[in-house]
Structure formats: C-alpha cells, structure tokens
Amino acid sequence: MPELDPIIHAPNRLRICAMLATSAELDFRLLKAQLDVSDSVLSKQLKALEDANYIEAKKRSYNGRPRTWVSLTDLGQLAFNNHVAALKSIINND
Amino acid sequence: MKNDLPSQTEAEDALNAVHNIQQNLLIEYSPPVWLRLIMSLSYGAIFFGYGMTEHENNWALAMIVGAIIFTLSTALYYYLYKIQGIKIRIIPRSIKAEKINAYAAIGFAALGFFSRFLRTDISLDWAPHICAATASIVMFWLLIMLPTGETVVEEK
C-alpha cells in the first residue's frame, strides 16, 4: 500500500505538484497566481520541494526579464503519483 | 505519517483539490479554439493531399501548404502557452498520456497509409476524404483532451 508523503501532503505543496504534473515547466508567476499566495510563501514551499529533489527551478531571461521556470523531477513525479495513490487507497479502504 | 493518516473526507478533499487545480489550469490557459481548429484542419489537409497526390498534381501543393500551416499553427500554440507561463510536454511522462499518444501515432500512421492505398490500389476514391476527416477529428479531440500533452481534461 503506498504511503502518504509528508513533504507533498501540505495543501499548497500538493497543489504545486498537481499543477507541475500537467506540463513540462511552469512559470513562478503562474504558480503564484493560481495559489493566490505571496512571493515569499511560494518560495518557501518551492524550497521545501527543491530540498527533497522533487522539483527543479531554472532562471532564464525572456525578453530581457528574468523568469523562473519550475518543473517536477522524475523523483517528484513518482512521489506525487504515490501520494495520490495513497489518498485513493484511504478513500477505498474506509 | 502512518500514525497521522487523514480521514476519508480529508483524503477526498485533497484529491478534489488536485483535480480542481489541474483542470482549472488546463481549461483557463488553453489556447483559443480557432487555433486548434486550424491545426486540426491543416493536419487533415496533409492526409487528404497525400491520398490524392498523383505525381506532381495540385494535391501535392495542398499537402505542402497543409504541412506549412500545421507547423506554423503548432509553433503559435506552443508560443501562446509559453507566454502564459506554461511549457507543454512534447514526450509525455504519465502512462495514460503515453498510451493515448501511442494509440494516436499508430492510428495516424494507419490513416496515412490507407488514405493513399485504398484510392490507388482498390480505387476507393472517397478514402482520402474519410481518412482526412478522421485525422482532423482525432487531432482536434487530442488538442481538447490533452492540451498540454500530459494531463487529460475530464469532467469530475
């Protein structure tokens, strides 16, 4: 039975992983707008995921402006899939 | 985490949050329908032109024009996502998306083959029309259901 991942379990981090699972990379500003949080709150959540090697953040210049692109690593994708499977198993077992 | 398992309701809420934010992202940021329609029709034109081409008649030109429009509209599709902050995935990572893409690739290959073979070898003159229409519809469906190449748009 898959286990819940304590790093992903926090609501904002779960939603960040869910959004990143839909695409190759997402812009920091898009994540911020979707979560409706401040830069510092989002940075803190991303740092926790980055420390676990679940995400990668790359800074690139676009039209002269720096943009931070965030992507889910293979490990992060696996952890997210396992976490979702664990949530489903809780629902099915109860 | 084992000693602090969420209740069934909490687990349902968490899964709903995952579903909602994914679907919201896919629907809110998806490119306009007209662009997806152009992509689908130009893709179908490639199949139609290929099926109708004999040596260097005008249908070869239709195939080339279809390919150019499809390439340009695909580039615009990618660009529109990028300026909104989304880079779409070319090669999918989830098993579900991989399966859909594999079936689609096989289906398109078969449509391309039959588009020409049925008309030239069995004299079914309407085969390119059917194959092109099918390719357009399937491509449009893929662009609606799998807009970023990874997660399927679905009703809850």
From TrEMBL, chain A:
<protein>
    <recommendedName>
        <fullName>HTH arsR-type domain-containing protein</fullName>
    </recommendedName>
</protein>
<dbReference type="GO" id="GO:0003700">
    <property type="term" value="F:DNA-binding transcription factor activity"/>
</dbReference>
<dbReference type="InterPro" id="IPR027395">
    <property type="entry name" value="WH_DNA-bd_dom"/>
</dbReference>
<dbReference type="InterPro" id="IPR036390">
    <property type="entry name" value="WH_DNA-bd_sf"/>
</dbReference>
<dbReference type="Pfam" id="PF13601">
    <property type="entry name" value="HTH_34"/>
</dbReference>
<dbReference type="InterPro" id="IPR036388">
    <property type="entry name" value="WH-like_DNA-bd_sf"/>
</dbReference>
<feature type="domain" description="HTH arsR-type">
    <location>
        <begin position="3"/>
        <end position="81"/>
    </location>
</feature>
<dbReference type="InterPro" id="IPR001845">
    <property type="entry name" value="HTH_ArsR_DNA-bd_dom"/>
</dbReference>
<dbReference type="InterPro" id="IPR011991">
    <property type="entry name" value="ArsR-like_HTH"/>
</dbReference>
From TrEMBL, chain B:
<feature type="transmembrane region" description="Helical">
    <location>
        <begin position="100"/>
        <end position="120"/>
    </location>
</feature>
<feature type="transmembrane region" description="Helical">
    <location>
        <begin position="126"/>
        <end position="146"/>
    </location>
</feature>
<keyword id="KW-0472">Membrane</keyword>
<feature type="transmembrane region" description="Helical">
    <location>
        <begin position="59"/>
        <end position="80"/>
    </location>
</feature>
<keyword id="KW-1133">Transmembrane helix</keyword>
<protein>
    <submittedName>
        <fullName>Uncharacterized protein</fullName>
    </submittedName>
</protein>
<feature type="transmembrane region" description="Helical">
    <location>
        <begin position="33"/>
        <end position="53"/>
    </location>
</feature>
<keyword id="KW-0812">Transmembrane</keyword>
